[in-house]
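Below is how a single chain appears once it has passed through the pipeline. First comes the sequence as given, then the structure the pipeline wrote out for it. We keep one example in the README because the format questions we get most often are answered faster by looking than by reading.
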Amino acid sequence: MGPEAEVGADPTPLEVTLGRVGDRWSLLVVDALLDEPRRFNELQAAISGIATNVLAQRLRHLAAEGVVLARPYSARPLRYTYELTRAGHELAGALRLLAQWSSAYETGGAPTHAACGTPLDARWYCPTCEHEVDDADAATLLYV
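Resulting structure:
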């Protein structure tokens, strides 16, 4: 990682991101919501091993961070359907990168090309220039 942070220095974008969604359970909640909105019990069933209180805390945190939107579907008792915001959906790319990194050590972790079965490489892409950006240029973005 980059140089030691100075006392009182502004947090890096990576530090801010980790504060918003940097724990295991939060990322698994985001992953479980990528395909469709879900109710609390559906999320608990989709995320193996998560305790009820942990799921409730993570959903509240992700909602406060603007990653998840909680829509009430019942007033008595008050119950919600949870869905990702646009910012939450944009985390899909980061999850793909984590899966790709993991696949270097374990099989079956990364998505593959449907036509030939080859594991896909995630790339930085600039939509303005319409060019791929190499890792050296992209890496500086994490520690600005």
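The chain is about 45% helix and 15% strand.

See the next section for the split statistics.
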